[in-house]
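The following block was generated as part of the benchmark described in Methods. Ligand: magnesium ion.
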Amino acid sequence: MLRKLNTIDFQSSKYNFGRTVLIRFDFNVPIENEKILDDFRIQQSIPTIKFCLEQGAKLVLMSHLGRPNGNVDKNLSLIPVGEKLAEILEMPIKFSHDCISDDAIEVSRSLKDGEIHLLENLRFYKEEELNDPKFASKLSSHGSIYINDAFGLTHRLHASNSSIIDNFSVKGIGLLIEKELQYLSDSLKNPQKPLTLIIGGAKIGTKIDIINNFLDIADNILIGGAMANTFLFSKGKNIGKSLFEKEKVKNAREILENAKKSKTKIHLPLDSTGSMNNLINKKDFTLKTNQIEDDMVIADIGPETVELYTSIISKSKTVFWNGTMGVSEMSHFSEGNNKIIDSIVSSNSESIIGGGDTISSITNYNKSFLSEFSHISTGGGATLHLLGGNKLPAIDILDIK
Ligand code: ADP
Ligand code: 3PG
Ligand code: MG
């Protein structure tokens, strides 16, 4: 059983230096010139922070940012995250430049109730990714209660979400992980039917497992984006110069074969739009799938595909979507993708969205639509890992069996 935040007695006097909660978040957000470009993951950490503050706790927050490989890189400092937290919470945030220095531990130990201390990027120490127990033990001296709420990192075992837990008797998951599991695990395992899975985008290799895992679970799987090109290629269709993944053609063929014996229906694009030779600032063609020629580049799903896909979506009770239907960052190739967004928003389905580019495509089309979806996942790799049918190891080790 996973221990949830609301089962922890924050008032207990047994903690050795007060109610100091050490929380692992995933503040791995895009930052350019010290400016946060997308604060979604930070915003999603706020309910856990507020919950703990309301219990009269003292908070020490830790995270990684980027991949500094054990080196200090000032471009990957968490200072902008601290400033953003201060702005959202309207309170000062203490900051330590070294996550395990004696000074940093002293700041944590002298916090007053309701104060927050943010530690610098954990990955400035190579020991973090090496899951080093000594480093984890040092980190653990920041708090007396441990909470993991870094959903985006749960597919990895690092010192701050793995070795560290051996140092705590009171440990559990935060509100974000609780919510992510509710939607990505509970809702999709016992979905309201019909369940439709929409898979697209370019990272085909990391998504093919999801399709396999949902054969027999989903009623329909709608495939778009460069992912669809790999499937069309596997069926012997000409995809011209379109992006596809050669090493995954065999997997795609197997999936289509398996689908014939399954209750799940896999749908591929009937038509597409695109340009000649390269992806350029002009839409050159709208053609049926079997009319594509050698010098053409497929860039979006066409109107017949939109009609088929939106009619399936409108009858669905649960929709999971990961991966854009086309090169939606180019406005002239975002039409098909935008129609899919419209259709999910106007359906009465429980809608669950994952994937950085998929979320950006919604933001670029109409930011106010973000609140129209039932759940938008903060996990990139973690979400794909879970929906590919795997356990999330950092959550599994917190599970008291
Ligand atoms: P997510 O970040 O939502 O998981 P991906 O990273 O897998 O999605 O894919 C998004 C990317 O896929 C976008 O950059 C988009 O340009 C690209 N893409 C989608 N369809 C095509 C296509 N037909 N040809 C080339 N690139 C495509
Ligand atoms: C993510 O952004 O997916 C997580 O923060 C994990 O980052 P990583 O892939 O660098 O481990
Ligand atoms: Mg992406």
